[in-house]
Amino acid sequence: MRKLLLLSLIVVVGVIFIARLFYLQVYNEDPYSLYDDNAIRKVYDYPKRGYIYDREGKLLVANQPSYDVMFIPREVKPLDTLEFCNLLKITKEDFINFYDKAYRYSPRLPSVFIPQLSRMEYAVLQEKIRKYEGFYIQKRSLRDYQTTIGANVLGDIGEVNNYIIENDPYYKSGDLIGKQGVELSYEEVLRGIKGIKFIQKDRFNRDIGPYKDGIYDTLPQPGKDITITIDSELQKYGELLMRHKHGGIIAIEPSSGEIIAMVSAPSYNPNLLVGRQRSRNFSKLYTDTIAKPLFDRSLKAQYPPGSPFKVLSALIGLQENVVTTEDQFSCRNGYYLGSRRLTGCHSHVSPLSMNQGIAQSCNAYFVNVYRRIIEKYDKPAEGMDVWSNHIKSFGLGDYLGYDLKIGNKGRIPDGDFYDKWYGKNRWSSTYNISNAIGQGEVETTPIQLANMVAAIANRGHYYTPHIIKKIEGGPIDKKYTTPNYTTIDKEHFEPVVQGMFDVYNSGTAYNLRVPGIDICGKTGTAENFMKIDGKRTQLTDHSIFVAFAPKDNPKIAIAVFVENGYWGSRFAGRIASLMIEKYIKGEVSMTSMEDWILTHSLENEYAKPYSGQEFGINRQSALQVIDKIEKDTVVNPITTRTSILNQ
Amino acid sequence: MQREYKLLNFDWITIALFLLLVVFGWLNIMSASHTGEINDYFDMSQPYGKQSVFILFTLALIVLILALDAKFYERFASIIYAVSILSLLGLFIFGKNVNGATAWYGIGGMTLQPSEFAKFATSLAVAKYMSDLQTNMKTFKDQAKTVALIVLPAILILLQNDAGSTVVYAAFFFVFYREGLQQIYLVIVVFLIGLAIMALKFNVVVASLVAALIIFGHHFFGQRKRPQLIQPIAIVIVAVAVSFGVKYFYNSILQEHQKDRISLWLRLEKDPIKLHEMKQTILYNLNESEKAISSGGLTGKGFLEGTRTTGKFVPEQHTDYIFSTVGEEWGFLGSALVVILFVGLLLRILYLAELQKSTFSRVYGYCVASILFIHFLINIGMVMGLIPTIGIPLPFFSYGGSGLWAYTILLFIFIKLDSNRINEW
């Protein structure tokens, strides 16, 4: 018995030790990774971020060096604070503040002391920084915009957030990443791959030397330059025309799907989001909930499309063989069901055939066509589905698949939609005739409308719109060079295109003709409402216009959307015509039309809902005339905004 | 069956285990102490170079020990003990202070630590006294005398401020128990340890109450024949006194760092700020050593490849914390192997001790096993955070000449005694 005490203790202790080792080394241990080992310092070498060029090869975005003063609180040795503060142009209180804040964050990790020194400041400091132990200068690369336009297209870069760091092992705290626009869409192409050096540390956090003589170290791979499809001249012109208006313009090259211009108004100068002022400016832009400059209206704004939608009703009517180009429908200032007027219309010659139906934008004509389409089938849901599928083949009602990361689906109702709404088969075409004229349940975004026009311009197919034209050393995604076909046969397009041509020749856009260019277009006006103090209030109609030109071999398809601009040809139509002329001719001859746009503002209109007073809309609303906008001024919504509110 | 050649009488299994530990220890010392390229295994400016020399000396020492007559050790046990005590006393005059302990003699560029050698000297003395025919370990008088043999060097070492080495002398309890110490002492030791831990972890009142409950419970329900009530009452009073004593000892006598180690081990500190501070200071070693061990995973990072070892993250890694190097570079497989080698060596010594015909050899063998076991238990337990930090080396493994020689002498005297058992009756 007595022999057993030590013997059993030895065995028990041995077993406990092995169990403890198992717990520490096998059970409890994440797989070893050099990246997580805090005995190894990882030094990243950031590659040059790719440049961005426009379709003409003009440089839009380059890089500029920036210098941050960094420090590791624990390693800071007593120093001549006064001299140091003078060098950095800060007060002693600032110094103590920065130091304490960083120390609380972590005494061991590097923190930014002063971000983004200017080149001059850097030059002065560079000589002397060695004197101050614990401080060093870290070079970073910031974007250098060569232009003041296209903020929504180009986007910006900023520090990665925690969510990304946790989900993508590539990014480390402090790394920069594309936040919006093409910077976001082509982040992986533009950023390149950073290089890494592993350095063995000792327990005092000092470097001993390269880990294993650097066999795991990698060199940075520079980011690739990209060329985008934007024509910066046209983009600039579009942004100029959209000053003091809210809305969006999308221009697409129908033969390729390339986005030539993508204007969202109000816009801002992309340089605002670079450098020391970035976060201050960003929060100003972000908190402007009235103008919403960060909201890309060209991609995200979802409105009822209004009359441009009518051309689709005509095309479907022809495809479904329920109407011929010769069929005429009468209009008595509206469409009547029995004695009830379902929709109004302006006064024009009656009855009308298809060509003039489009040119005069007759509501009654398209309601008739729409009813014939739906009622061709036994059940309304069936007819509705057929209609819906035709519409959707134009890229409406769902994400288009373009290479920018934001957007909206829009809405194209189908049979199910109304079956749920009213009950199965408890409705008929007369319940939703406003779909025929682009009102009611139908909603689209400007880029969807532009794409729809491109499909009509191409007589039946479209290329998925895209912003990328060339990636250095590689082709672009094949899906952007493969045509998507609509469900409408090619031969049905000619009469409709002719109708759109006559919109300019003899119809609602007669005053917008551009000498020497055959433009096909369609005006649109959409009612809209807003909740003010909980009350649904109607605001001045949105002004909408779609067009493509020239009629044969079209080079540009465009959709213009101006919030509260009233009727289609008033703001949107003028802007569309000017844009088309600018793009095709390279310059604008219609100076009076241009002057009109540059001297009229809608800011009053936008201020109305926030004024707290009663206000008139549409006809009761007076146009605001302003001094002509200088062409070369830079838009800055941060100051514009305050000026509106002060008025 | 008499063996022809004496040489073959040595227990080669023990010797093989010993050599494996020494060589593996040396490799790990190399890892833990190298800075950059290793060109010269005998580079005297580096700990691993010195250890190479120490090992060569050790081999010479082994030859010497095995060459001497087995009876020499028994005969000269008292003299060796006396010399050892004198060398400990001499420290008060000539001692050199390293890390707060006056436990070294400085000879030229080398240092010698007599407390390491006192371990085998005391073992010899204890074996000699116990094997004396006139000694009866059942009597209190002889028990007290034997204890005095152990307490003398222990107190001298404690006075030199080397508390870690003092704890090792507790190992002799196993020897006494094996040689016939009454069962009641084992009960008392276990009872007192439990009482001390309870008094610290909870408080004195709880500890006293639990003690009283156990004792009276035993008194009323455990025994058929009840002695007088006075006896359990006396025990309870003693127990209460011990509880208070432990508390007093902890609060007033222990030094701050010793107190902190115990408080951390028993999870006494609840204040998160103080706890955080402790992690930066006294827990630092333990934290780093646990991290190094865990980072080794199943198979380790490989010889000379440990990032935390190369970065010298664990202080004292080549001496007391050498096992963390094993953990990091050789992983679970390597460290478990070291544990198995030690367990194997200890069991082998125990087995041989039981085979001895002479009491002297048996007691000495038991001393060797007990002392090595305490080192093994405390050192590896400490490095893995199982017991409070007590700074003693891992025998054969840790860097250090005095230690290596002392444990070698300790072990090889026994191997010599064992080889001679055939000639004894």
Structural summary, described in words:
The complex is a heterodimer of chains A (647) and B (425). Chain A is of the alpha+beta class. Chain A is built from 22 helices and 22 strands. Chain A has two domains: 105 residues, Penicillin-binding protein 2a (Domain 2), CATH 3.90.1310; 415 residues, DD-peptidase/beta-lactamase superfamily (Beta-lactamase, 3-Layer(aba) Sandwich). In chain A, strand 11 and strand 12 form a beta hairpin. The longest helix of chain A has 24 residues. Chain B has a three-stranded antiparallel beta sheet with strand order 1-2-3, covered by helices on one side. Classes of the chains: A alpha+beta (647), B mainly alpha (425). Chain B: One of its GO terms (cellular component) is plasma membrane. Chain B: This is Rod shape-determining protein RodA. Chain B: It is a multi-pass membrane protein.
Structural class of chain B: mainly alpha
- Derived structural class of chain A: alpha+beta
Unreliable spans of chain B are none
Shape of chain A: elongated
Gyration radius from CA atoms of chain B, angstroms: 23 Å
List the total number of helices of chain A. Answer: 22
Query: Largest protein interface?
Result: A-B, 35 and 47 residues
And the CATH topology of the largest domain in chain A? Answer: Beta-lactamase
CATH superfamily of the largest domain in chain A: DD-peptidase/beta-lactamase superfamily
Helix content of chain A: 25-40%
Question: What best-fitting shape of chain B do the alpha-carbon axes yield?
Answer: globular
Mean pLDDT of chain B: 86
